[in-house]
Design goal:
CATH superfamily of the largest domain: Vaccinia Virus protein VP39
Structural class: alpha/beta
Shape: globular
Distance between the termini: 72 Å
Number of helices: 31
Radius of gyration: 28 Å
CATH architecture of the largest domain: 3-Layer(aba) Sandwich
Strand content: 5-15%
Length: 762
């Protein structure tokens, strides 16, 4: 693969590569600063060490763990081929593993807490490196063949192996910090929240395009600095030395990056790699073609000549005078075919400039030649946002989409997306895209998936045509569409278009009248709802298509859970939340309602976090660069509410009220997402994340005031949150949609409210 390019170097490395005199001046300043730090340590730290240093250590540890979480969530997303289900599974396992580390630390002798914390800080950086290497090496660990995907069982186990090192050490470190002399748990909680906020800022706006191993080196330095606040001068010098090693060792970090990426695609040739605001992008060389992967998900094949020819010509032949064409991701071979028609403007929409540059370098010569045509220009940004901002209508909109195997991919195949495309088209304009079909046998899952997209398209456009065979080409317009191969071939001849795979005979094979009508009827009559932003049925049934032959217990459990009805799921969740609360109360009935409120608040907070991420993605596109900010806001709301809300029994009712506000607000926010500016939308989502976290904090503090033990309160909170992440992401959201999932979260507050009312009356 050679030297990786496109990764920003740390600022200190830029200075190191500057002129020698400037570098010497910088090193002199570092030495002088170190000397001042040592003097301050000698004079003032003995008097203030017990109050300031431990809290500063907790802030740094919180920053390290928060940034590490965001990086590992991105790696989990790539390991799962971009499926957002990995985020929910990772968050659930993060909670359980962190609790396990915290519980294990509680068994250690209190008098050695500082020493154990120092060791934990040193091990935290190594644990992060181990986690990154494990995530990249999962295909080799499970002996996957080239191109094979992880099964659900392997994916869950792989997440466990990846997250365990960081979570166990991180959970133990916080518990040990709270046991230090002079450190109150409430202050430590606020200090950790401050660290999480810094981590959210770091992961969202500073290091989102850096190599993960470069970031891991910086976080290792931060972890050692954290323990330096606890151990004195020697550790400060060690931290400076470690920072120098990390800076000077960037070449070694690049080699580690190259080697670990080859583990993700064993036996493949990686031609290019880069990190963008929307995730990791890699170009793999395969014979005469190049495959472009985004977060492990196959996004484009360059070139894909036959399907590109068929899609482009089928769409443009429907329009008598195609002049202005809008193409989403057209580097796969669409552009040269479009320019064979009498067009005057072609806009290529790409998510961002770096990705467009990589696609241009990997494109075939015909596409690169077509890009020099003055009629072609490239737009960067979210496809739906670009269509929304259209000022002059388009004649044809082509969506070069893949299967709706992720929520990000499926958001282009929803009713809302089609409505935005229709508003951007002139009267009589055509929208076209392709989905995998079948030569003969269409499984029920495949009919349901493509049928949900067909119904969404038919709910927006008056006329829809879908072709049969291995690739289904969807054509939609508010004017009648031609299915006559003779007429389409005549238009092809009039425009003097020469194509290798499209002529009168191939058109007759692509669009046989009887099979076209039969397939349309099957899709129209499928017992499935139209896919939409709030009810992503295409994503749900793609999960079922991919899992049709998937072996393993997790796949069987997922298929069983997706078959549950709404009320069955709600009743089962209520029991699962109630039993731990009763067991934790240990016969003390007065504590049962308070613990049940904490359990419900934990479920509501995590469920709201998952739903907020879903709304964010449907409204704003790719999620990577917003993960850190949203999770940090949730943690900050929890910590602030747990330390600043008044100690009052009415806090339990307040927790239920705040927990109901967010799920009641999200459906409205989702419906307004296309009418409000992005900055306003982002602000509203951050406020919702704060409120979701605050519900847990209020419940936690109120429960402790009512007499529950910290251990019991923590356990039921953990059970609720760990249950919410996989259930909402893998069952409720794809199965019932956003509105029903929010109703489910709100409904679960009823048993705890009833228990509180009965207890208060007694």
């Amino acid at each position: 693969m050679g030297t990786l390019k496109g990764f920003p170097s740390p600022p200190a490395l830029w200075l190191w590569r500057a002129k020698p005199a400037f570098a010497n001046a910088i090193m002199g300043s570092v030495k002088a600063s170190a000397r001042i730090v040592l003097q301050v340590d000698c004079r003032f730290v003995p008097a203030m060490h017990s109050r300031i240093s431990p809290l500063a250590s907790v802030v740094l540890l919180g920053w390290v763990i928060a940034t590490s979480q965001t990086i590992l969530l991105r790696e989990a997303l790539a390991a799962s081929q971009g499926n957002e289900l990995a985020i929910a599974l990772a968050l659930g396992q993060w909670l359980l593993l962190t609790a396990a580390g915290s519980a294990a630390a509680g068994l250690l002798p209190t008098r050695f807490s500082r020493q154990f914390l120092v060791v934990g800080g040193i091990l935290l950086g190594a644990a992060l490196f181990a986690a990154l290497l494990t995530a990249r090496g999962l295909p080799r660990i499970f002996s996957l063949a080239p191109g094979a995907l992880l099964s659900l069982d392997e994916h869950v186990l792989g997440l466990l192996l990846t997250l365990a090192p960081v979570c166990l050490v991180g959970g133990a470190s916080f518990t040990l910090a709270c046991r230090l002399p002079g450190v109150a748990p409430a202050r430590a909680y606020l200090a950790e929240a401050a660290g999480w906020l810094l981590g959210g800022v770091t992961a969202t706006w500073l290091v989102e395009t850096w190599q993960p191993f470069v970031v891991a080196a910086g976080l290792s330095v931060g972890a050692v600095l954290a323990v330096a606040f606890l151990s004195g001068r020697a550790w400060i010098l060690a931290a400076v030395g470690l920072a120098a090693v990390a800076i000077l060792g960037q070449r070694g970090l690049g080699s580690m990056e190259s080697a670990s990426l080859s583990w993700r695609w064993p036996g493949e040739t990686i031609e290019a790699s880069a990190y963008t605001r929307h995730g990791h992008v890699a170009v793999l060389l395969r014979a005469e073609q190049r495959a472009l992967y985004e977060d492990g998900h196959l996004a484009l094949v360059l070139p894909e000549r036959q399907s590109s020819e068929e899609l482009a010509h089928l769409a443009l032949l429907q329009v008598r005078e195609p002049r202005r064409i809008f193409v989403a991701r057209g580097m796969g071979g669409l552009l040269p075919e479009i320019l064979k028609h009498p067009v005057v403007e072609v806009a290529l929409a790409e998510p961002e400039a770096i990705l467009a540059e990589m696609e241009i370098k990997a494109a075939d010569p015909a596409t690169r030649q077509a890009l020099r045509d003055p009629r072609v220009h490239i737009l960067t940004g979210d496809v739906r946002s670009l269509l929304r901002r259209t000022t002059s209508p388009w004649d044809v909109v082509l969506l070069s989409t893949g299967e709706p195997s992720t929520l990000l991919a499926s958001r282009l195949l929803t009713r809302e997306s089609f409505a935005e495309a229709k508003r951007a088209l002139r009267p009589g304009g055509v929208l076209a895209f392709a989905l995998p079909g079948a030569e003969n046998y269409y499984s029920p899952e495949l009919v349901a998936r493509n049928g949900s997209v067909y119904k969404a398209l038919a709910s927006v456009f008056a006329h829809v045509v879908v072709t049969p065979l291995s690739t289904n080409y969807f054509l939609a317009s508010d004017a009648p569409l031609s299915r006559d191969p003779v007429e389409l071939a005549r238009r092809l001849l009039e425009r003097k278009v020469k194509a290798n795979f499209v002529d009168e005979y191939s058109l007759a094979v692509l669009m046989p009248e009887e099979r076209v009508q039969s397939l349309s009827s099957r899709y129209r009559d499928a017992a499935v709802a139209a896919s939409s932003d709030r009810l992503p049925t295409a994503y749900l049934h793609d999960l079922l298509v991919s899992g049709r032959e998937a072996p393993g217990r997790v796949a069987n459990l997922l298929r069983w859970a997706l078959g549950l009805g709404f009320w069955t799921l709600a009743l089962g969740l209520a029991v699962l939340l109630l039993v731990p609360a009763l067991l934790a109360a240990r016969g003390r009935r007065s504590q049962g309602p308070a613990l049940l409120v904490v359990s419900v608040a934990g479920f509501s907070s995590m469920a709201s976090a998952i739903l907020i991420l879903s709304v964010t993605q449907s409204a704003m596109g790719a999620l990577h660069h917003l993960l850190g900010a949203l999770l940090a806001a949730n943690m900050a709301g929890l910590a602030f509410a747990a330390t600043k809300t008044p100690r009052s029994g009415i806090g339990l009712w307040g927790a239920l009220g705040v927990g109901l506000v967010v799920p009641a607000f999200l459906p409205l926010l989702s419906r307004c997402s296309t009418q409000v500016p992005p900055i306003v939308m982002m602000g509203a989502l951050l406020v919702a994340s704060l409120a979701a976290g605050a519900a847990v904090g209020i419940a936690f503090r109120a429960a402790l005031t009512s007499g529950t033990t910290p251990a019991a309160t923590y356990v039921v909170d953990l059970v609720g949150a760990a249950l919410a992440a996989p259930v909402v992401a893998s069952v409720a959201l794809p199965g019932f949609g956003l509105d029903a999932s929010c109703a489910l979260v709100a409904l679960l507050a009823a048993p705890s409210a009833l228990a509180l009312a009965v207890t208060r009356r007694r």
